[in-house]
Amino acid sequence: MHVHVICGDGEAKFWLEPDLELAKNYRLSRQQLKQIEDIIEVHQDEFIATWQHIFRS
Q1: Count of alpha carbons within 13 Å of 37, Cβ hemisphere only?
Q2: How far apart are CA 34 and CA 50, in angstroms?
C-alpha cells in the first residue's frame, strides 16, 4: 500500500506498510518531505482503510 503526493514543486511516493517510508522523491526538499510524512502519519489508518476498501473488494 502506498500514497502519491503531487504538488507544484514535485512529487513523492510513500509506502504505508509495514512502516511509513519514502519510496520515491522527485524534487521535494527534506523539509517538504517531513511535512508530508507528518500529515500521512496522522491519517495513515484512514489511507490504509480506504486502500483496502478500493483495491481489495
Answers
A1: 16
A2: 23
